Amino acid sequence: MGRKVFVTVGTTRFDALIKAVDTRACKAAIASHGYSSMVLQIGHGSYLPTKDDGDSLVEVNFFTFAADLKEHLKSADLVISHAGSGSIFETLRMGKPLIVVVNEALMDNHQAELAEELAAQGYLMYAFPSTLEDVITKMNLNLLVPYEPSDASAVVTSLSSFLGFHN
The Glycosyl transferase family 28 C-terminal domain covers which part of the protein (predicted)? Predict the structure, then answer.
């Protein structure tokens, strides 16, 4: 079994991301890095990806929703995700290489700011649907920095003390 890519849009509708990974050029870029299969979680989207384009660059399967995405994340060698903070941090905590795709259609796009900041810190790569194929083509996963979740216990202790709660 070859290396796997998992693509997720979470609970959103993000057809632009699904269409971007479903292009022949994007599949070729994915295959050029040694990935042989791709599972897409398409959420509320109406665009249905091509399972077999005849050339079999990458085997494609998809589904709408699952009770839990952890198993898909665990089995993935690369994750391509929408820019929701829950999806981002769950993937980073699992130590999976991550490309975050920002939905340009959103107003007041705080997701773009989060993706840009985490990319600047070296934890992930980010793209827009229109640049995804180029980001995949040029990606070097060896440059990513492992994400180390911070210890929030000091903040909790301080807040508890401020609020008058004692351990």
Answer: 5-154
Report residue 33's pLDDT band, with 50, 70 and 90 as the boundaries.
Answer: very high
DSSP assignment string, 16-77:
HHHHHHTSHHHHHHHHHTTEEEEEEE-TT------S--SS-SSEEEEES--S--HHHHHH-S
| DSSP H or E stretch at residue 159 | helix 153-162
What separation in angstroms does the CA of 67 have from each of 23, 43, 70, 164? 28, 12, 9, 39
* Look-up of token digits 């994750």: 79
In this predicted model, what pLDDT tens digit does every residue of 44-87 receive, in sequence order?
999 999 886 666 689 999 999 998 899 999 999 999 999 999 99
Assigned token pair, 150: 């911070």
DSSP assignment letter at 141? G
**CATH class (in words) of the domain with range 3-162:** alpha beta
The gap from C-alpha 82 to its chain's centroid, in whole angstroms, comes to 6
Are the C-beta atoms of 42 and 17 separated by less than 8 Å?
no
Q: Which residues pair with 6 in a beta bridge?
A: 39, 79
One-letter amino acid of 23: T
